[in-house]
Amino acid sequence: MPRLITQTTVADFRGRLCDVAAEMFTEMGRDGFNMRELAKRLRVSPMTAYRYFRDKEEILAALRARAFARFAAKLESVQAAQRPRQRGAALAHVYGEFVQQEETSYRLMFDLFQPAVPGVPELAVQESRARAAMTEFARLMVRDGLFEGDPDLIGDVFWSALHGVAALHLTSKQADIDRLLNETVRALSSAYCSGAGARSNDLCAALVTHDTLAGSYRTRPHLPAE
User: Which residue in 135, 147, 152, 224 has its CB near the most CB atoms, within 10 A?
Assistant: First the structure.
């Protein structure tokens, strides 16, 4: 009697397949990743994976979706910073932490040559979630009178700048990513703080100091343990 295939069975196998695929991608990169080796490691026939994913690109898209979910969770944790002026330091910290701990995943997430894969809607969901977390950081800063401007635009500017630092680190390996991320946040915070009004002058002055960005988050962490 053939084994009953349920939605739970499918989800479990897809999850196991993605776990193995992630290990392979870390070891081999995009060019070395192949379906035959994946099947071998899963101990299934070479055609089994095609019952769950259309092709290699759909599997890689699923890996990107999972990576973006972890990345978004990191960014969302910044909202837990208890003091408004600590949010910038927290943002720099979690961004750098993810890039350094999940370098391969970060490269895959932002691969310039990845094709559009319509079969993985979760990818767009998690990309949007990450962007929303950056926007929420900016929205909270505007709400508290620390920044002035459009939160959507501010969030995109911060993300663009931090991604530039990450790309420099990944390509040169000589850039001090933590120092550059902190300085990037300090410079942008100074720019957006300058128009926020007299009522936030004291907070702004504290927000953009090197000591605040370099030390406050690390010495007094307020983010929940993972």
Answer: 147
- Give the structural domain span for 31: 1-53
Q: Are residues 24 and 92 in the same domain?
A: no
Nearest to 85 by CA among 211, 219, 213, 207: 207
Rounded to whole angstroms, the Cα distance separating 164 from 161 reads 5
The domain that holds 203 is classified in CATH as 1.10.357.10
What total number of domains does the chain contain? 2
Residue 58 maps to a domain:
no
- pLDDT digit string, tens, across residues 42-67: 999 999 999 999 999 999 999 999 99
CA pair distance 120, 69, nearest whole angstrom:
13
Residue 75 sits at the vertex; the CA angle it makes with 71 and 80, to the nearest 5 degrees, is 140
Q: Mind giving me the DSSP string for 155-221?
A: HHHHHHHHHHHHHHHHHHS-S-HHHHHHHHHHHHHHHHHTTS-GGGHHHHHHHTSHHIIIIIHHHS-
Q: 20-39: per-residue pLDDT in tens?
A: 999 999 899 888 899 999 99
